[in-house]
Amino acid sequence: MTYVEALTEYDGPGPSIFLAGGISGTFDWQADVIARLADLPLVLLNPRRRNFPMDDPSAAHAQIAWEFRHLQRATAVLFWFPPETLCPIALYELGGRAQIREQPLFVGTHPDYARRLDVEVQLKQARPEVAVVSTTEALAGQVRAWAAGRLKPQE
Predict the structure, then answer these.
(1) Which of 30, 53, 81, 82 could be 109's S-S partner, Cβ–Cβ 3.0 to 4.6 Å?
(2) What is the H or E stretch that residue 132 is in?
(3) Which CATH number goes with the domain that contains 58?
(4) Percent of the chain having pLDDT more than 90?
(5) Where would I find the beta strands (DSSP E) of 8-59?
(6) How far apart are CA 57 and CA 71, in angstroms?
């Protein structure tokens, strides 16, 4: 596994997964997913930065731009919606990514995520092949199956 943290640029070869979802005010679910996928030959693109300068407006601009570029560059995108926040930006990103059929999606929501039903129903309309799961373990399992070739990339 190759780990890339924002704001490090990545545009290399091989399958890459962007870890999209809640960051502010949430537990570090990205670390959990990274640990579960650490033995796979994937590039994990993590927007959660260890040291984010919250009081610097230019830092937010750079972060948003990095996420935009890497969401497009990623082979696939994994979304996790935790219960602590509604994740409005992640919902926006999911809506955009759901329209790109050639980019595989892996989506999970905590059972207590307030907009779980919305995520499930909207995805059923846009990408019926995407199964929404309830744990990061199941989400990592979907990625493992895809990486092993048991799941074809969504078309």
Answers:
(1) 81
(2) strand 132-133
(3) 3.40.50.450
(4) 83
(5) 16-21, 43-46
(6) 21
